[in-house]
């Protein structure tokens, strides 16, 4: 090796001399630009709520809220037309969850006939073993969810378990493993509209504008009936909790 490598640049290790041939590091190694895909991924509104990113909407003035909504409208003529409507109904637009769930009939969960949900030992298992990083992510989620009124401590006698999945950023997203609960409850289903019929109806109206109206964290606006909340209980190493609103995860 000594006969092959005659010297090395000790200052920056950028250059090697091999048999009187100078090699630069850039000639030996291929360097790829750093990934920036994380910056291109839009934030998850659910995580914005838990991370207090959207805090401040309710403290804004009416004009500020109107201007914020109009940022998503690119047609100048349409902006002029809908501005008076926004002024009259700006209170229905939100970036934050309201303190109370939507004024709709609370969701009820019904166990199937002869269900063994309350006595099956698989629904009474100890908390799943989590690595330290997952424990930290789960604890953070629980504290934020309790503060936002999404969950509360539970006294349920059977439960599910949280399941953490890794996001592209390397952080963990808290999900719920409802596999056993889904098998023991009656399924609620609603027929989807026929897409061809919808397109035909839109064509008949000869609409000039199309808009998308999305509910702010829609699942979390749906209350769970008091009698059903114990069925949504999930077990962690730090305690037992249950959902007060519908858990989309």
Structural features, described:
The protein has 249 residues and is of the alpha+beta class. Helices cover 28% and strands 14% of the residues. It is built from 8 helices and 8 strands; from the N terminus they run E-E-E-H-H-H-H-H-H-E-E-E-H-H-E-E. Strands 1-2-3 form a 3-stranded antiparallel beta sheet. A 3-stranded antiparallel beta sheet has the order 4-8-7, with helices on one face. A two-stranded antiparallel ribbon has the order 5-6. Helix 4 packs antiparallel against helix 5. The protein is globular. The N terminus is likely disordered.
Give short descriptive properties of this protein:
alpha+beta; three-stranded antiparallel β-sheet; about 250 residues; globular; disordered N terminus
Query: Which residues form runs of ≥5 with pLDDT under 50?
Result: 1-18, 28-43
Q: Number of helical segments? A: 8
Percent strand equals: 5-15%
What does the main sheet amount to?
Answer: 3 strands, antiparallel
Q: For the residues shown, what is the average pLDDT?
A: 77
Major β-sheet strand ordering: 1-2-3
CA-to-CA gap between the ends? 59 Å
Q: What is Rg?
A: 27 Å
Q: Determine the fraction of residues in helical runs and give it as a percent range.
A: 25-40%
Provide the succession of SSEs. EEEHHHHHHEEEHHEE
Q: How would you classify the helix and strand content by structural class?
A: alpha+beta
């Amino acid at each position: 090796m000594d006969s092959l490598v005659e010297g090395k640049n000790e200052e920056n290790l950028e250059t090697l001399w091999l048999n009187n041939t100078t090699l630069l590091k850039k000639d030996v190694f291929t360097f790829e630009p750093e990934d920036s895909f994380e910056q291109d991924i839009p934030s998850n509104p659910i995580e914005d709520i838990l991370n207090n990113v959207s805090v401040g909407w309710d403290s804004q003035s009416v004009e500020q809220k109107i201007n914020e909504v109009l940022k998503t409208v690119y047609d100048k003529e349409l902006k002029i037309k809908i501005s008076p409507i926004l002024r009259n109904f700006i209170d229905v637009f939100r970036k934050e969850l309201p303190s109370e769930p939507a004024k709709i009939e609370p969701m009820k969960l019904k166990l199937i006939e002869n269900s063994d949900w309350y006595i099956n030992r698989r629904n009474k298992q100890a908390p799943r073993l989590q690595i330290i990083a997952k424990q930290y992510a789960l604890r953070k989620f629980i504290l934020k969810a309790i503060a936002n009124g999404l969950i509360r401590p539970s006294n349920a006698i059977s439960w599910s378990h949280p399941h953490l999945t890794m996001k592209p950023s390397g952080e963990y997203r808290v999900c719920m493993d409802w596999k056993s609960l889904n098998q023991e409850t009656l399924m609620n289903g609603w027929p989807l509209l026929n897409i061809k019929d919808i397109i035909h109806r839109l064509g008949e109206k000869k609409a000039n504008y199309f808009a998308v109206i999305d509910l702010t964290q829609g699942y979390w606006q749906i209350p769970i009936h008091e009698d059903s909340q114990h069925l949504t209980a999930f077990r962690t190493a730090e305690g037992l909790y249950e959902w007060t609103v519908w858990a989309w995860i």
